[in-house]
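Re-running the complex after MR caught last week's input typo. The corrected sequence lines follow. Everything else is unchanged.
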Amino acid sequence: MEVEKTFIELLLPYILALAPALAAAVSTGTPILFATLGELVTERGGVLNLGVEGMMMVGSLAAFVICYHTGSPWFGLLCGGAAAMAMSALHGLVCMVFQGSQVVSGLALTIFGVGVANYLGTPYIQQKAEGFTTFSIPLLSSIPLLGRVFFQQDAMVYLSYLLPFLLWFLLRRTRFGLALRASGENPEAVRAAGISPFKMRWASILLGGFLVGLGGAYLALAFMRMWADNLVAGRGWIAVALVIFAFWRPGRAVLGVYLFAGVTAYLFRVQALGVPIPSSIMAMLPYVMTLLVLFVSSLRGKGSGAPADLGNNFKVGD
Amino acid sequence: MFKRLILTGLCLALVLGLFSPNRPQAAQDKKEIKIGFVYISPVGNAGWSYAHDLARQALDKQPGISTYYMESVPEGADAERVILNMARRGYDIICTTSFGYMDPTIKVARQFPKTVFLHCSGYKTAANVSNYFGRVYQARYLTGMVAGSMTKKNEIGYVAAFPIPEVIRGINAFTLGVRAVNPNAKVRVVWTKTWYDPAKEKDAALSLMDVGVDMVTQHQDSPGVQEAAQDRKVYSIGYNTDMSAFAPDVQLTAAIWNWTPFYLDVVDKVRAGTWEAGSFWPGLETGIVDIAPYGKMVPQQVRDSVDARRQEIATGKFVVFGGPVKDQSGKLRIAAGETPDDKELLSMDWFVEGVVGKPE
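Corrected-run output:
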């Protein structure tokens, strides 16, 4: 009995660290969530866009610069989305109009986006902007434990709670969503139904781009409220991987993002408590866990759920 | 074929023609020293590269010195290209300010024996390459004393970069400073495995606060940790440069670099022709490292005792790693009366007593 008690006493701080880790997972996961959902929409339409990292950078910078000069985080957010949307339009132009390779164009977009944002952002490095601040939602925030985790955040986080439901509704319950998904599966069928898969793909590229931009904007306007060189630091690539992890479904994307961010945040807190595990092993864990979940669920599921025509170009107008 | 040859010839003539009028001019003004800097991160308003750039700006104001810099240069092949370009353009002194520039610097230096190369934080030297660094751990010790005096919960958080001797030495010196004034205090370490990822470093600082520290310090180049401290109104200690702009209400002080006297000395020696390559590791006595002005919340009594210790370190009366020093397991690592030599300091891979965390 004596041993058991001390064992629980030993474990207690690690259990207590779960709640703040979850709160941190929500705020550090939100930019990845926006980007993952954005890429998910684009890929559902049949277009692979590996430019997420670059688009996030550009969205992040645009949002920051506008907010810095106008003082309005909401206007900044909008511009961040719009800037990333413009970047994704570039991808659309290359792949849809000029029939370029989606993989190459996406990679180029990342290299270009990171470079141009770092270059144009130089005068703003380590400048601060007002941005979004946290506020509690009455009633909801007084729920024990979970209230503090989910309802003492900023406006963009609350927005991110609604987004998966909106996307689910859009993709699953509207004609537009059906046509968009069908363009990713079988563009010929969409054409036969009298809808232009060309237009649907453009819609998926632009909507996806906008959402990715919001993810970038979150980093600059809500999490840091500051501009820094290479602010996105690989989060765009994590988003691309999480779309695969999510089997192209918004609900699973939410799960994947919070799992990934949660493990990362929890390991930081465990380290701070002085757990005797080398930090390199712990830094590896979020990735190992993501791989494991992916492996296990792919054993159980039927196929990955990837849109059948993902990554293929088609000729316009014929 | 011939057209192309003629064109090439013309171009060559043009290039030579453009360059030749400059030559005598340069020879006339023998004292003009051109010094170039290569930075790993953007200069910004704080951090490692900013500290070097403050010195560069100071040099630029001196008569007879012109400066140039390249920021955000990745380590590896890109660095070699940048260093090579600077050497080709005739810079007299080239300072490469990140550990990973070491091999590219040595390589380029071989091709330009008349150019002076200075590499910061490495260990290799050559006939025309010096390595240099500063004993910033001395400043860390002093900031540790401030932290140890000001903590109420006796729990201090340290957001660390990579588990390498330079960072470990800093954590150890800081902890020795903390425990010199407050033997009950603990220093909790979280590794981010980054030099510059503001968002990640901020989250690491928040995680330390979540487990109960009431003070944080950092090793990375971004002000992410200071941002977190300012947000939660937790006392902080900066690094590289005075970071009070990012944490105006909470920064107690910072361990800072002042490279200007070092670079000026090199310029003077190069101009006089007396410069010789070597390894330089100066400390508080030269002013190359120091602590930033105290925040208004630091009481006079704390300032006095830290200032007194600062004087003792600068004059050599006190040695930071002077024994007895125990490690985390309580084993005596440096016996009473002993002082470790530089080789031991440069390969330090263990934590002193009072650190919570693993040095790997």
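None of the earlier attempt is carried over here. Residues 285 and 356 of chain B are 31 Å apart (CA to CA). Confidence is low (pLDDT under 50) at residues 14-29 of chain B.
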